[in-house]
User: Fold this.
Amino acid sequence: MTRVTFTILEEQRALLQQSIFRDESEYAALLLCGRSRSRDAWTSEEEERIVAREIIEVPESAFIKRSPVGLTWSTAPFYQAVKRAEPQNFAVAVIHSHPAGYLRFSSADDIADKETFEIAFNRLESDRPHLSLIMTPDGRLAGRAYGPNLKPRPVDMIRVMGCRWRFTYPEVNTETARPAFDRQVRAFGQQSTLDLSRLRIGVVGCGGTGSAVAALLARIGVRHLALFDTDFIDETNLNRLHYSTRTDANLRRLKVDVLGEAIAAIGLPISVARIPHHVEDIEARDALKSCDVVFGCTDDHLGRNVLNRLAHFYFIPIIDLGLLIDPRSDGGYDAFDGRVTVVQPGSPCQVCRGLIKSDIMLGEGLRRKDPAVYEQRRRAGYVADAADPSPVVVTFTTEVATMAVNELFQRLNVFRGANGAASERVRRFDEVKEADLLPSGKSRPGCKLCDRRRYDGRGDMDPFLDTAS
Ligand SMILES: [Zn+2]
Ligand SMILES: [Zn+2]
Assistant:
């Protein structure tokens, strides 16, 4: 059966709340939403992910009757929205307020929704689902999806993504965390451990930082983990790649296999999807799109660029990690930094932060697609030489990994307080001073991704992530 989920930014949710809580009577609004269809990397189930893109306010004059427990309105605004949605294959979500705080659909809602979506499916060629949502005064959401049979089904997960990441599910949560996580629950309470057991988390790049991130995620109770890496283990990895052994290097085993097996052997309930493909490859796409959160542990600009765009098109936040050790010839360091950056709409993107360079990306792309041409152009001096392997030490890759996974905890349970989210955190390892929070960078004026925000919630598009532009 297809799983239907919905993702909205906290800023959009707050705008909607303003729009539909005007007085003590119900009110409604509409949303145009991008779509994402993918095959789940863990269950092979199909997921229809509906991503909020544009809020359409409904004028007061469109309502025929509004009361604290009911709403009658003209079908015109909805019809207009459906007309706009169709050419782009967007989904439409209808949302109304329940001022009395009832987070369930009423029998009046059942009748109204059926009529509304009948209009949609009579008109539309596509049989893909649309949504009906309700919001209570405390800002909570509940939703259901309608297909052409007009039989509603609960939305399987609602993600509200802001400084805090909130995930809700329709069933009442009575599951208690297992004894293995008892000490963690004593520190953080039960909710974040339960969230971790539900989330689908990707780790892109399984080297020094990636193997540490994956090991930590497994230990804190993540049950759906996807590992992305095309590389094989060799001798130079043994000093920092957690779980790697001499035998793995001799056999040149895939990093995702070695790490995946070791994590499964811990014995906690976890399913690891091993993806031996680059995130740019079509073979990696379903797994990537089925993640709720992705850790970017890759130092190639091509891969980082895919993740940067994914964060905007699909509202999948990226926790990107970096370690920069730059020794001077006279001793000392020009840089000795660990960095954790959270990429999501509302913060500067990785291009504007200067962490993705288009010339390096072009060189990497050419080397992947056409090594012979790359080699020719490199000799002729048209593309940069591949950089020497950068300095790296396992204690620091592991420390950056810990910073990154702790940022995930912050987003789930706000242990540093409501204002404790860090969109970029840099730790200077060569200074005695403790962790520094840097000002979080700026969007370049005109950046389509993070300044003009042309792609927020766009979802599926051909070409994928509109990478031609
Ligand atoms: Zn209602
Ligand atoms: Zn930008």
Notes: The chain is about 30% helix and 25% strand. The pocket of zinc ion (ligand 1) is lined by residues 96, 98, 106, 109, 134 (CB under 6 Å). The chain has two domains: 3-168, 179-466.
